Amino acid sequence: MSYLETAAQFYSEVAQTPQVGLCCVQSTPLQLPGLKIPRKMQEMNYGCGTTVHSTELGNQPTVLYVGVGGGLEALQFAYFSQRSGAVIAVDPVAEMRQAAVRNLEIAAQENPWFDTSFVEIREGDAFNLPVGDNSVDIVAQNCLFNIFEPEDLTRALQEAYRVLKPGGKLQMSDPIATRPIPQHLQKDERLRAMCLSGALTYEEYIQRIISAGFGQVEIRARRPYRLLDSQTYDIEENLLLESLDSVAFKVIIPEDGACVFTGKTAIYAGPEPFFDDDAGHILQRGIPASVCDKTAAKLAALMPDKIMMTDSTWYYNGGGCC
Ligand SMILES: C[S@@+](CC[C@H](N)C(=O)[O-])C[C@H]1O[C@@H](n2cnc3c(N)ncnc32)[C@H](O)[C@@H]1O
């Protein structure tokens, strides 16, 4: 059996017998006015963060959701679009698709605004998405791509890129590892399926996203996820896993490299009222300006005594204070 088959078998099991808290770090999912999440769906919250960024879902986007789980985030996305077929949710595991259908039927009984036609559940997998090129506004996946071995992760990212419209967004939440996960754990297919041993480091993960063609990546959240302790996992030192919420944009990669926003700001502290780097960044004296990590490094090297650089907040959604 391949590791992907092991994962499919595992998710067939947890579709039939929900495992509360399997991946999730948020005991209370995103609360929205008028949205009631059925208890069964909540018990099947197998995501490690959120891909539903509520302030960014105007204009009723078409969403392709990969790895439907119990349907929680598909329902949350449907809340923002509220039209037939707005969310297409894909899963290769029949038992998981059936569980999601059942949960969404309960959701329709509990939420007057929701119609089951808003979410269309299709058989398919991350490597072969059942939609055309350039056809959706958002691709979302939560706690699935970390299961994939690196080359498969690249295939899944490329497939997401294919189906997104130009300018479209890949919204992901995945565990990342604070140092490389030892081989014996990486090879443990069951741990991998449980989102405990396939995680890449932050740098490797972001590089794979960029290599698939995404020109801009924004980090929405980074938080502790799980601890692989030395005794249980037979490793020299405890290893912290974090969960990372990101949004990657299908835009051209600039000549000098992709832009990754992690919440850094640059603050000009020189004698002039403002500083213009002639590359599109104008810094007013004393006022923080959000910059991507590439620009932060360039500006810091250019004038270390006159431009202060703040640390990554790991919480970026456009910057600005008002
Ligand atoms: C960790 S669960 C996450 C479920 C959901 N995203 C959530 O947040 O609750 C992974 C999901 O991906 C599905 N899955 C497994 N292998 C897959 C594949 N190759 N392509 C797409 N989905 C897959 C599983 O059946 C399961 O529904």
List the main descriptive attributes of the protein structure presented here.
transferase, globular, 8-stranded mixed beta sheet, 10 helices, binds S-adenosylmethionine, Rossmann fold, alpha/beta, 322 residues, SAM-dependent methyltransferase, 2 domains, S-adenosylmethionine-dependent methyltransferase activity, methyltransferase, 13 strands
Describe it.
With 322 residues, the chain is of the alpha/beta class. The protein has 2 domains: 3-249, 3-Layer(aba) Sandwich (Rossmann fold); 263-309. 29% of the residues lie in helices and 25% in strands. It has helices at residues 3-16, 39-43, 72-81, 94-110, 150-163, 183-186, 189-193, 202-211, 230-233, 293-302; strands spanning 63-66, 87-91, 119-123, 136-142, 164-177, 216-228, 239-249, 259-261, 264-268, 274-276, 282-284, 289-291, 307-309. Helix 4 (94-110) links the parallel strand 2 (87-91) and strand 3. Helix 1 runs parallel beside helix 4. The N and C termini lie far apart (54 Å). Residues 4, 7-8, 11, 23, 45-47, 66-70, 72-73, 91-93, 96, 125-126, 142-144, 195 line the site of S-adenosylmethionine (SAM). InterPro entries: Methyltransf_11 (IPR013216), SAM-dependent_MTases_sf (IPR029063). One of its GO terms (biological process) is methylation. This is SAM-dependent methyltransferase. Keywords: Methyltransferase, Transferase.
Q: How many structural domains are formed by the residues?
A: 2
Assembly annotation: single chain
What letter string, H or E per element, gives the SSE order? HHEHEHEEHEHHHEHEEEEEEHE
- Characterize the overall form: globular
CATH class of the largest domain: Alpha Beta
CATH-assigned homologous superfamily of the largest domain: Vaccinia Virus protein VP39
CATH architecture of the largest domain: 3-Layer(aba) Sandwich
Q: What fold name stands as the CATH topology of the largest domain?
A: Rossmann fold
- Spans with pLDDT under 50 lasting ≥5 residues? none
- Rg over CA atoms: 21 Å
Number of helices: 10
Cα(first) to Cα(last) distance is: 54 Å
